[in-house]
Structures are given as structure tokens and as C-alpha cells.
């Protein structure tokens, strides 16, 4: 097993003095050569980090030392190589951006369903299962029978849900996302709209893939992750997808064989989205990445490091 531990974490809790906490966490990450991104906001902390066992434990201890974060839970997987290039601690307005004032999982949140109980919930014909992730994530894998809201951004979810709710009044709703954080906000939003029978998958898809045997699984495909691994499958094993460095969407071998695919510049999904000037910029960035690789160096413009 690789010695690189990848830890995904989040915790909703009121936080103040963010700049001081930012400095502390940045120092701990640097001291232990842990890379990745941690977000701090008045509503809590969110991040994915990677490093050796000792380093990850040190950073997790520092995060749990933040006010109200002693109960923080995290999810672990492994990588063959470091999936991040830098260590970043950023200050944000929200740790997951929905853009709706007043929505707070600290105040109210949907009921949690353990991964081991999820199959029973989503097999209920009276339950509507909603994938709260963005369309490009859903495209490579989701649960049997789940609704894809086809959103481009989590900011689009509230408007979609309002329309869904008007067309499906009184339905029991079960939501899920990658690691659980988006469902905290989406179920809080549903409750704010008066929907009381709302549940979500505790720990998200990653915890489900870690704990539920493939033979018993209702998951289909792979799960997109926001680091250099791109996707994972059952048991959190490395997936088969690569990533377009232009649009950051997952791509498979068939897409890479398409004439529209140029490494770092375009793929069939984004060929019409960028003008020639933008693609020239992508091409220059790819050239610099290739030169850095040839010298055995990491290039800070590598898209897997952008978050």
C-alpha cells in the first residue's frame, strides 16, 4: 500500500479569528510536508490533504484543535504519488458555496443514513434519490435510480430544488454527494423550505465505497474526486479516468482518442467553450508543464493543484 495518505475532511462550526487559524494550519502543513487545500470560513472548515501518516495525523490534530472541531470526522484513502503540488489554507465566505444567506447545517440538517443502511433507503419506491453533485461528476458514476439535477455549479441547486419540490410535494427525499458536505447544505435548504422527511448519506459516496462490499453495492461507475487521482471505485481503488486540463472534467480513453482532444488544451466536452486565444494560453501552459516534467520538477500551473 502506498505511504501517501489522502484525508478528506469537513466540519460545520462557528469560527472566528480566521486569519490566525490560517497561519497556524499553514505552518503545520509546511512543517510536515503535507499538501492540499484547507478552506476556512465563518461556518467551519473543509479540505483534502495528502502526506505521510505522521504528517496527516499532525494536521488533523491541528484542525481538531480549532474551536468546536474536536468532533471532526475524516475519510482516508491512499495514492501512489502525491496528488497535490502545494499546501494552501484559504479564507472563504462559505466552505461549500451555495450562495443562499441563512442556510446553515449548524442550525438544522437532514437525518443521517449510515452507508450500511443506504441500500435499503434508496430501494424504497416512495423515496426520491437526488445526486447533489454537478453534472460532469454524475456523468461518470451515480447510484441506481438517482435523479441528476444537471447543475453546472452547486449555486444552481436551490433553484433546481424549488422546481423539483413544486412538482413533487410531500415526497421523501434522500440526498448524497462525494463526501457529505454538499448534502449538509442541500438538506438544510430543503428543511428551510418546509420539507421534513429529508435524509442523506453520512460520509457521502466515499464512505459508501469504502464500507459497502462491491457485491452488495448499488453504486454504478466511478466517483470523481478533486485531486490528481481524478476518480476512485469500490474500496477507494484508483479509477480509470484522466482529466482534461482545460475544463477539468473527467475524460476516458474514448474521449482522448477524439480529434478534439489535445492534452492540456481541449477535449470533446469543452472544444466549443473556449476561443482560440484561450486555447493558445492553455497550450503555452501545457508546454511549460512538459518542460518542468522533463527537468523532474513540479509545475505550479498543473490543473490538479487548482482548487
Offer a quick outline of the entry:
The chain has nine helices and 15 strands. It has 307 residues and is α/β, with parallel strands linked by helices.
Characterize the structure shown:
The two termini are 27 Å apart. The chain has helices at residues 18-31, 53-64, 115-122, 135-138, 157-167, 181-192, 204-211, 253-256, 276-294; strands at 4-12, 35-41, 44-51, 73-79, 87-91, 111-113, 127-131, 141-143, 172-176, 198-201, 219-221, 223-224, 231-232, 242-243, 250-251. A 5-stranded mixed β-sheet has the order 4-1-3-2-5, covered by helices on one side. Helix 1 (18-31) runs antiparallel to helix 2. The model is unreliable at 299-307 (pLDDT under 50). It folds into 3 domains: 4-91, Alpha-Beta Plaits (2-Layer Sandwich); 111-221, Oxidized Rhodanese, domain 1; 241-299, no CATH class. The chain is an alpha/beta fold and 307 residues long.
What is the strand and helix layout of this fold?
Elements: E1 4-12, H1 18-31, E2 35-41, E3 44-51, H2 53-64, E4 73-79, E5 87-91, E6 111-113, H3 115-122, E7 127-131, H4 135-138, E8 141-143, H5 157-167, E9 172-176, H6 181-192, E10 198-201, H7 204-211, E11 219-221, E12 223-224, E13 231-232, E14 242-243, E15 250-251, H8 253-256, H9 276-294
Parallel strand pairs: 2-5, 6-10, 7-9, 9-10
Antiparallel strand pairs: 1-3, 1-4, 2-3, 8-11, 12-13, 14-15
Helix pairs in contact: 1-2
Amino acid at each position: 500500500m502506498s505511504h501517501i495518505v489522502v484525508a478528506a475532511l469537513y466540519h460545520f462550526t462557528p469560527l472566528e479569528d480566521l486569519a490566525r487559524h490560517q497561519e497556524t494550519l499553514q505552518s503545520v502543513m509546511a512543517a510536515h510536508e503535507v499538501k492540499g487545500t484547507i478552506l476556512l470560513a465563518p461556518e467551519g472548515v473543509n479540505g483534502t490533504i495528502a502526506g505521510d501518516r505522521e504528517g496527516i495525523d499532525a494536521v488533523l490534530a491541528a484542525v481538531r484543535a480549532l474551536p468546536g472541531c474536536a468532533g471532526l470526522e475524516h475519510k482516508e484513502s491512499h495514492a501512489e504519488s502525491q496528488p497535490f503540488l502545494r499546501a494552501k489554507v484559504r479564507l472563504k465566505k462559505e466552505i461549500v458555496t451555495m450562495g443562499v444567506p441563512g442556510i446553515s447545517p449548524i442550525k438544522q440538517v437532514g437525518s443521517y443514513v449510515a452507508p450500511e443502511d443506504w441500500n435499503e433507503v434508496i430501494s424504497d419506491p416512495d423515496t426520491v434519490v437526488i445526486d447533489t453533485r454537478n453534472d460532469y461528476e454524475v456523468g461518470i458514476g451515480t447510484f441506481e435510480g438517482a435523479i441528476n439535477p444537471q447543475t453546472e455549479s452547486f449555486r444552481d441547486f436551490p433553484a433546481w430544488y424549488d422546481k423539483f419540490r413544486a412538482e413533487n410535494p410531500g415526497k421523501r427525499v434522500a440526498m448524497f454527494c462525494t463526501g457529505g458536505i454538499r448534502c449538509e447544505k442541500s438538506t438544510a435548504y430543503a428543511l428551510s423550505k418546509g420539507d421534513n422527511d429529508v435524509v442523506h448519506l453520512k460520509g457521502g459516496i466515499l464512505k459508501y465505497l469504502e464500507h459497502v462490499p462491491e457485491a452488495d453495492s448499488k453504486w454504478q461507475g466511478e466517483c470523481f474526486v478533486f485531486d490528481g487521482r481524478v476518480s476512485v471505485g469500490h474500496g477507494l481503488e484508483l479509477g480509470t479516468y484522466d482529466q482534461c486540463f482545460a475544463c477539468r472534467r473527467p475524460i476516458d480513453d474514448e474521449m482522448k482518442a477524439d480529434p478534439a482532444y489535445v492534452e492540456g488544451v481541449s477535449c470533446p466536452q469543452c472544444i466549443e467553450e473556449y476561443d482560440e486565444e484561450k486555447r493558445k494560453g492553455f497550450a503555452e501552459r501545457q508546454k511549460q508543464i512538459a518542460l518542468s516534467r522533463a527537468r523532474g520538477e513540479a509545475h505550479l500551473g498543473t490543473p490538479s493543484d487548482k482548487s
